Each structure stands twice: as C-alpha cells, then as structure tokens.
Amino acid sequence: MQEGVMELLWKNAHLYGGNLSYVEQLYETYLMDPNAVSQEWRDEFDKLPKTGESISQDVPHSPVREHFLYLSKNQSRSHPVEVASVSSDHEKKQVRVLRMINAYRVRGHQMAEIDPLHQLQREDVPDLALRFHELSESDYDTTFQLGSLFFGTEEAPLKSIVEDLKKTYCSTVGAEYMHIVDTQEKRWLQSRIEPVRAHPEVEVEKKKMILERLTAAEGLEKYLGSRYAGAKRFGLEGGESLIVSLNTLIQRAGKQGAKEIVIGMAHRGRLNTLVNIFGKNPAELFSEFEGKKTLDTSGDVKYHQGFSSNVMTEGGEVHIAMAFNPSHLEIVAPVVEGSVRARQDRRDDTVGTSVVPVSIHGDAAFAGQGVVMETFQMSQTRAYKTGGTIHIVVNNQVGFTTSKREDARSTEYCTDVAKIVQAPIFHVNGDDPEAVRFVTQVAVDYRNEFHKDVVIDLVCYRRRGHNEADEPSGTQPLMYAEIKKHKSVRELYSDAMIAQGVVTAEESKELERNYRQSLENGEHVALSLVKEPNTELFVDWKPYLGHSWSFDCDTTVDIKLLQELGNKICQTPQGFTVQRQVQKIIDDRLKMAAGAMELNWGMAESLAYATMLAQGHPVRLTGQDVGRGTFSHRHAVLHDQKTAETYVPLANLSEGQPRLTLYDSLLSEEAVLGFEYGYATTMPNSMVIWEAQFGDFANGAQVVIDQFITSGEHKWQRLCGLTMLLPHGFEGQGPEHSSARLERFLQMSAEHNIQVCTPTTPAQIYHLLRRQIIRPLRKPLIVMSPKSLLRHKQAVSTLEDLAEGSFQPVIPETDNLDPKKVKRVVLCGGKVYYDLYNRRAELEKDDVAIVRIEQLYPFPEDILAETIKDYTNLESVVWCQEEPMNQGAWYCTQHHMRASLKMHNPALQLEGVGRPAAAAPAVGYISVHVEQQEKLVNDAING
Q1: 255: which of 315, 523, 820, 892 fits an S-S bond (Cβ 3.0–4.6 Å)?
Q2: What are residue 836's phi and psi, to 5 degrees?
Q3: What Pfam family is a match for this entry (predicted)?
Q4: pLDDT above 90 for 749
C-alpha cells in the first residue's frame, strides 16, 4: 500500500471513530464512478491493487478496508507508519468477515427461501460460503467488528453474525438493492432491513388482522368456486397475500398523507381486490357472473372493470381507484401513471406525496412486455414523473403454460427490468404474510422518502390453471402435483397463529363462517370502507355527461384578444438570444398579429393554445419533438443561444394562468400515449394532446388506440377528450413517413366514438382545437395533421378567419364557379386539395368543383348534401385521395358520400381515384411517387 493513501486516511481520521463504513462507501462510490470522489481520493484509489489472490473480483473493497482497519487501530500514533499488509491473523480474518457481510448484501437474495413450493432451482452462490472467505466453523466463537451492519452492536461472534445475515438476507425475504448507485438510498434500506433481520415482531392485533384478510381472500375464491363452478374468474388462489399487501399499502400511505391511490392490474386477483379491498358489493359481482345487462353499451367482462371508493386510514380518508384494463397485459401501467399525474396536477402536488400509483403485474408479463420498460424509463422524466410507483409482481412462476425460466425470460428474475432505474426489489415468499406486510411497509416508506419506483416480487403460485376451466397438470405436472399437496397460505398462517396462542382453532373457523355469511347477505367485506365518501375527492364529470354529437360550437374570440395574445407569444426576456432562423419566425408572427401578414399553421396553432389558456383551460402537449415541432413550425420552446436556457412564451401570458405542460417526450409511443390517455380521462377540463413525430409512429401505440382510445367509452363508460396530432401526407418520403394509417382509425369509427379530421387551413386547425376543449362533449380527436402545408403559400388564413369563423366539416368550392356550369365534383381531404386546385387552374377548367371533406368521422352527410345541391347539372362525382385505394378513406367512407349524393340525385355514381392498391403505404422512389401523384390528380380533374 502506498504511503499516500495512509496519509490521506490519517488527514481524515476525524471521520473514523466507530464508523467503519465511511471509507468503504467512498471506495464503492469510486468504483461506480471515479469522478464522484474528490481528486485527491481518486488519485490515491487509482494506485490501489484491484484484486488479489484471495479477493473476490465481485467485491473489490478489501485493499482499502485492510488499511482502514489498520489505521483505525493506530489512530493514537503521532504519524502514519508504512505497512505492507495487515499484521495479525485476526485482522486478516476481520477483513474477510467484512467481505462476507458485503457478499450477503449483494448476493444473499440468491439463496433466499422465496419459493413456497420449494421448486425454484437456485445456482450455488460461492460468495456466501465461509470457506470462500477463508473462514471456518472454528472461527464461530471469535468476536469480530460488524463494520456498517445495522445489527445494533459494534461486534459479535462469527456464528451470530452468520445466523443474523442468513435470517436477514436468505430467509423468506430476498432484498435486492446493491445495484443502486446512491449510497444514501442503500444505507437507508439497510437501516430498515438489518436491525429487525427482515422479520420484525408483529403485534397480536396485527397478526389477527393478517389472518382476517387471508380469510377474506380465500373465502371469496371458495365461495365463487362453489357458486359459479367452471366460470372464469382468474382467481387469486395461491397468491392471497396480495390482499394483505394492498391493505397494508393503503393504510400506510394514508397515514403518511396520501389522499388518493390509483391501482392498475391485470385480471388475476382483480375480483378479489375489488371486493375485499375496494368494497365492491358482492351482490353486484354475482349479478355480473350471472350475465345481467345493466348498460346500453358493449360493456366488458367482469375482470376488466374498474371501480373506486373511499377508505379510512389513520391519516384520514383516502380515495382509491382501480383503473379499467383490457386483456393486453401491462398496458394499463402507463395509463395509471397518467391518471395519477393528472390528480397530482389538480392538487398542485409537484412532489407526488398526495397521490400514489400502484401497478400490480404478472411475472411473465413484467418480464416480457416492452411497455414495462418504457414506463420505468418515464418514471423520473419531467413530463411523466409521479413521485415513484409501487410495483407488486404477483409471481405465479408460470405464464399461460410457459414455466421454464430459459423459455420465459433471459434474466434470473422476472423483476430484473426494474434495475434500469435502480429500483430496490424485495423478493418475498407469499406463504409468509408477515414478511409480505413488512416489505410492503418498507416499499411505501422508500417511495415516500426518495420518490422513486420500488418493486415487491410476491413469489407465490397459481392453484388453478390460467383460468378455472384449464387443467394445468397437462403442461406443469410436477408443479401441480406439489400444489395439490400444498396447504393454502391461510391454512399455514392459521396453524401458526393457533400454535402461538394468538387465536384458537374455533376462532379461526368462526372467521371463515362470518365471512361467508357476509357474502351470502350481500354485505360489504372491505375493511375501513367509507359508506358516505367525501365527494370533494372525486372528479366532477357532470358538466361533460349526456351530450349528444353536434357540429355546432362557438369558437370565436375577440380580435383584440387575438392580437394581444399574438404579441405575447412573440415576447422574450431581455437579453435572451434567439437563433437567427427562429427570430425570423417570431418577426413574421408579429406581422401576423398586426394583420400585416396572413397567418400560417404554426401561428394559428399557437393562438389556439393561447386562447385556451386565456379562457381558463390547462393545456398539456407532449411528443418526441413538440417543443420545436418535427417540421420546425411550432417553436413553442425557445432556446437561448448563449446560455442554452429555455423560455416558453405560452407559459408566460399572465400571472395565475392555467397550467401549461409542454415537454419533448422520451422515444416511446406506447407508454407515452397510454399516459396521455390516462391523463385525459382524469382531467376533463384540460386540453391534452399527443403529437407523433410522424403519423406512422402511432403504429407503436396501436394497443392504446385499439383498447382504450377508440373503445374505452363503450366498454367502460370512460369519457376521454385526448387529441392526437398525426403528421400525414404523401410527399415522396417513402413508405415509413407518409401515412398515419387513416384507414385504421376510420375502420374503428362507430357509435360516435371518435372524431377523425383532415384540416387544410390554419383557421381550420385553430377552430378544431378550440372546439375540442370549449364544447362539453368529450370524444378523442384524431387529426391527420400536415407536413408540407405548414409552410405552403396557399395554406394561410386571416386574423378575421380565426376571430369570426368556426370549424367547417365541409369546405365548399371557393372559386365562385357558376354552379350551373359544374359538371364534375371532386371530393377530397388533406394536402391533395392544393394539388387539385392548382392543376385545375393550369387547365383553366371551370366545370369542375373541388369540395373538401375536413371531417371524415362522424361524417357530415347532411352538410355535404347541402354543399353540392346547387350543382344541378352534375354528371360525375369522384373521391380523390393520395393513399393507395386499399388504404385511406375510400373503403370506410364511400357509403357516407353515396348517402349524401343520394339526397341530391339518386342517379349519381361515386368513383374513387388514388394510388394503386399496395401492401406498403407509399413508394420509396421519388420518380415513381411523382408519376403516381400526377396521374391521380389528372384522373380526378379530367375524369
């Protein structure tokens, strides 16, 4: 060891005392990130040998520990003495003991008894063996210092140390946290786990509560199994400790000040959770099993339904909500986060203490579904953070029929994905409900302390098959042979409580009888349920209910307010240096606000947001490039060229204005769109927008579109005013950046579920966006937004168009053609209008009228019929689209157009013009693109 390290340690001798952990923490930080320690420590640590013959490469702290131990024993010396190694055998063994302690912290979970079935095959962990650390049973009676262990004493015999380490890290709790970089977090976790050896004493009353909750969990499954034999219920049998965990979580979070808890989970155990935690009346559940219709909508199966209620905790009343969820596993996770963020925003809670998100996962889905990783990556970002999520994995150790680890995943644990955000993970044996209760308490406290995600891996089993109609032994014979012999967690715990004298056998039976009687009586069986909840905790949806579809909406704004806001969104702080091209955009916008220049798309869109904010509506806009806009049209976020500081004019319109949330998102579509859906379903008075970088990027979020956005209202009665801006247009950019797949949205359009629009002018997007928030109707809005039209010289509007106009579902012919001369009408939507308009002008044809259909669903049949009624000599009508004929609007919309024509002239036939049917959305060769575009435009105009 070099003398420099000794001198450095000596200079910091005041830090030692009894704190043997300081230097090893410093060295551990250095190993993770050398730049995280001071230069003088870094220089000296660089000189240390990295490994030795008897030193594990996994735990390279020993060089600094040996010399720290030596120095701590020689603090009284007047000057450091140079030594080559620790001088005595005892001191050498002391170093090895400290190394062993660290090994248990790092790898103890790999030997933990977390599998109730005892079938989990664990590889040997040599680091935990005494011999690995050159220790033996002959050292058991020797006393060693404990270093940084929180065992309540500074030294203990080796035998006691090993026993306590095994109980703490290798029993029914396997704590996995040493992957966390932050030393403070690790020390906090150690201070919670180690003093109680991961198994604190539990009061008698709490033991009785645990038994009661297990009785409820098992009792519901048995009752449903006997009353509705063979019916799918995706029961919780084998994982009943989940109810103990949730009950603990809610009470603990409420005690710490939470006012709302939002839970998302798939179908396994959902019915049990709804009845035993949320207080859903069992009689309602029984009606659902019997298939009774209660609503005039499609509805959904009982194990997808959401619910909400209020429960009482020591900290007061807490509102708990269960998110509605489809069968697509894990997709509800980002939806929950969005709902939680909306609730936090409503409470002006920027930390996340008032509303807690809880995600309950299955083991196979947690490991296999990419949206899990996306949701973790969102967790600490500005746009999507919620103060940490508590994740509970109901680990059945089997997917549908896949159980072998080498088939189910490539990682040791199903929870390893959580390590990407350094979340602590508590693997816990589901047959030890007291341990489940303990790790839940620690998880809630960790989330409250550090505002980060935390994971509980509840290792249990699935007593039935994937559903109650499956026979699981066909694919898992050994597992289910063991399960058949295995007592339920309730039986095991009841036996233990009887043995401890906490309850008698008769009292245990009485709990079962009382619960079953409550079910038969149709009584609520959740603990602490508030029968008359405080409605102030609810979102008031009354203003948005009961509105039928209408095209009418007053979106006008006083022109003076428009000009005032137009000037404000062009203001920057003094000394703020804007990039040259951006300054040109701002200068042009000032001219537009003054009426000296017609408005382009970016200005009209910005004014739409400004007027919403001015009229009291919060605005939330996210996407991968929304600050600037993918096509550089928005520039809502300005960047100082000298300091890199940002400024958002829309956020600085006036003091006390509503919240503006405008962030570039992470490179995710599925999780981000799920988040925004959850936000929009919880914040009805807010304008919530997700913009795709290109429209086809929505493909990555198709699950959210299918399962939530287009069908959520009719499955679950969930209103949603989310707006999706999807850049769409055929401009020779190839098959990946041309089409937002308009046809998919139109195919899913029915029962007035969504709105699909193709605006072509700045005034149209202005009024369309304002209509979405001003009228009380809440329906998702899908906008095929433009790319080239953002700067098209003809795609402009006036201030008067914005101030006085409204959104036009159909824009009639604008060239004042003589209606009697018109023999042909071309119907179209989107960018192709300008190509058609200019080609007609080139050909000087005055017998062709071009009508734009700006809203494709709900289709404006009456308005279209009224638009063409004056063309009394009409001979032909054609629909023109840029998309291939098997895509775009043609197949899903032609019947609406024909209905409009029938009102005008039953003899008229409708033709379709577009690109040839194709497998890909567009061609990749610009020459072919131009040739196709020329042909479809000419065919439409000339017939």
Answers
A1: 315
A2: -65, -45
A3: Transket_pyr
A4: yes
